[in-house]
Structures are given as structure tokens and as C-alpha cells.
Design a protein that fits this description.
By secondary structure, the chain is mainly beta. The chain is 6% helix and 38% strand.
Amino acid sequence: MSKRIFSLLLGLCLVAGMLVAVAAPAQAQRPFGVQQFEPNDTNLSPCAVPAPPGCTADFLSDKFDGVDSLAHLTAVATPETTQVTWYACPLGTTVNTQAALSSCNVTIGTDSTGVIPPIGPGASSPADEAYDVTWDIPGSLDQQRRDIAALACIGTAQQVEGGNANCRVDEENSIFLEDAQTGTAANQTTAGEFGQYRTRQTCLGVAPGDAACDAAYKAFPHGSPVPNDGFDFKAFTSDDVQALSAGVNAPADASAEPSTANFVVGVVCTLEQTFTNFKRWRCQLNDAQVPNDAEIAVDLLNNTTGGSLPTGNAGYCNSNNNPGVGPPPAQNQVPGAHDNCVLDVHYVVSSARQASRFVQSFSPNPPSPAASAGCANPDTDETSSLGTTEDAILCLFDQFTDPFAGPWTESTSGAGQIADCGGEGTGHDHNGDGLFEDCVGNTGPDGFSAGLTFQNPSGPTGDQTLTGCYDPQNQTTNPPVANHGCTDAGTTLTATKVIHWGTTATEVFLAYNNPAPSNASDPCRTGTTFKANEVGDHDDITVCTFDSSGNRVPTDT
């Protein structure tokens, strides 16, 4: 090897070695943001009770609230997060080192199933993830204070410092803890929790007893979607709550906790029923009270501000200075206690209503379609005889599963014809042959269009495929406008049904299976039809039905 070549190779190796030497070590990624919503040591709203501590979520109680005997902790983290773990830490702990984290010796729980609320067309994007856990507070922590740390992590390791940090921490300081299974009822602290919610506008504010509106309630977990035009919900509290309000904070997300700075509105809830040891309330937020296309915190606020209490006269959420009654006995007084406690906080995302699901079904005509056929139980496959008709219904739903008023198209292909487009539809003859290639129409506020009728007067037999969809381009102009029809509608906004048109059975043939028929493909007309038997003999027979043209047809037509 020449000296020149050796020198060149040596130089290249040195350069490569230098490049490797100066390369920065790989850095672990941690979430961009995390905020606890409950508990929260920050004042959530303007409050008549001096703040702090008034109108704060600075406590956790597992007193029975009509739902469970568990405290509910909620947090919001940015979408790259894979899990959130909560810890109870000694007061004054700043969890920014592994040593500090190790001092947080009470693990509350971990949630690895973050929920991103569905996003509407104009909502914040991307939305953050909602995490929560429940906690049976141990008796050893009853009426003590701890700092509550929430670790949002990417992966299962819990590194909070250095180049391998994969977690970000949010801390809420000096949180009062109540184990309601410890001590006397006289000083157990109020608790409350969200129940189900309704988004159907015609049901908002409707009292219990209306069957349709009672059925419109659905689960309302932390991380739910809500409509811009309002919703209502149930809430459950321990029986010592005398007045309940709901508050709204926006924007509230993984980088902005609920506080007075983002407080929007508060509303008074209606007491629906008092039970033996809990109460059920109904709270409503209307169109003007829900910020449009926003990430929102919704909170429950105990407004009990004095007077005699049905059970207990102290606890952390009943003021030591109870107007008109005086303070609780000294043995029941809780240091730092105050009125107007925040009982539970949920993260929701609001958006405008949009078509989300299209459903179609043949109309009930027992025995087939069944009496239960409809958009909740679609029948999309029917066999019918020539000369008869089949009726159908169409339904549109929004992203909240509520009925949606919107444009639709229903087209036909194969055997059969469109006989009627119903009261909300119009026939569209594309090619001037006197037959409708499709129907176009709009569902009403009930999200429902009925009366579509299909026929096959005289054949030919075969399948008629009916394709329906949400179709904003459903004009009846010729030639059809661009994107008219269902090609661009998307999977959830398109549905098909099929009619198998056939003839009616007019003749019945029977034949014995033994001896075998002379033509196995036509057993009934080539098999034996007379046989002499003795008492006790058994025979198998085949029954065949044919139409007037000699075609084999089923008898269920």
C-alpha cells in the first residue's frame, strides 16, 4: 500500500472517529403537557368565599355519593402520552428528581387508556387525552394533607430528570384527604360525581318521566364530546349538599388548568330526588353557555353556604362559620374548611353537529321484515315476489348519536324500480327514460325519512341493490352535479340494502328418496311417487315448489 493511500485512509478514519465522538446521545421524549383537573389547588371561579380556599378542588373524599365510595381524580395530557400515574407525596415535595419521586410512597393508581374526545370540523385540533382513576383513600391518611403528583409518561419507565426523562409532572399542593369510612359522620367531607348526559336538544331540561328523553341519557365519562348548542347531565352528591352548581372553564387542557382566568359561566342545578344517603341533580348548559369548538372543563360546585345540614355539620366542605347556625362543635371542626368546594371536574371538547352515521332499513311488515325492523334494528335483506312492493326508511345521526337533519340520496341498481320516494324525497330521472335512478331528499329534525317504495311489476327476477347516503350534492338537476351520489360519502355515511326479486310458488311436488330419483338434480319430478308400505315402515321424502314457469322457488316468497 502506498504511503499516500495509507495517509488518506488514516485521515478518513480520524474524521469518522471525530464525527462519532461528537454525535449527541439520543434523548428520551416526554409529554409536552399535563394538568390535573381534580384535585386542583387553584381557584376555579370567582367566588364569594375568599380564595383560597373557596371554590377550589383542593380535597379528595371517598364518601358515598350515589355512585360509589371512591374519590375521583382526573387529568389531561397531550396525545403522545401513554399513561398517567398519581402519587400522594409529603407536603412540600417538588417532584423533579428521582429521589423526590421515591419519597412519594403512596401510589394512587395508573390509567393507560387515555381518551381523545371526537373532534368536530372546527374544534381544537388535536384534542388532548383524558385520564382518570378512582381511589379508596386509606384510613391512615384520613383528614391529612398531601401533595398529589400526576406523572404523564411515554412508556412504562418513570424518569423525571436527565436525558432519559420520559415523564412530565403536574403537582397539586396541600390536598385535604377524607376517608369517609374512618371516624364519625359528623365530620365526613362532601362528595359528588357526574352521572349520565343528554345531547338531544328536544330533551334538554326535561324532568324524569318522559320515556323518550329518559332513554336519551348516555354515559358521560371524563373526555366526552359535547355539542356547541348545549347539553344537560345528571349529578350525584352525598346528602349534605344543599345547593349544587355547574361551572365552565375554557380553554382548559393539558397546558391550561381550570382557574378564574378561564372561567366562563356557572349555572344552578335542579334537585331531582333525595334518597336515603345521597341526592340526584340535573344541570343544564345551553347554547350560550358552551364555548364553541373548544376544550372545556366542566365542574360540580357544592354551593352549601349555611343552615342546618341533614347529616353531619362539619367536614372539609362545610364552613367553620356556618351562617345562622354557628360553627360546628370544636371536635368536628376541620382546619382550613370552607364552603363552595369543587366536587368533580371533567374534560370535554365541544363541536358543531355534523352528519356522522347513515342507516337504512326495510319498514316493518311482519313476519318479514319483523315488527322491530327500523334504524335501531336494521333489516337490509329481503326476498319478495314479482308484482309486490317493499317499503323502506332512512335515518341520519350526528356524532353525538342524536337525530340529524340533512340531505340524502337513495339510488337503485339491478332488477326492480323505485316506485315512490316518500314524503321527504323527490325522484330523479337522470336519462329521461321515465324511471327514477335515485331519490333525493332531506331528513327532518327527527333525522328520519320514510315511505320510500320499491317494486318489480313483471320481472326480470334478480337482485335490486339500494344504496343510500348522506349527500350534500343531492340536487335533481340534469346532468347531475359533481359528486352527486354516494361515491364520496364515506363508510359510516353510506348503507345498502338488497331485495331478491323472485316468482311465487304455484306448484308443489313430492317424491320418495328411496328408491333414488332418476335425475338427482330434479328429485321431486323424477322420483317415485307411489309406494306400498307395511305398518311401522318409515320413509323420507323431498318436497319441491315451482313457479308457473317451472322454476324452482322458495316458499317464503
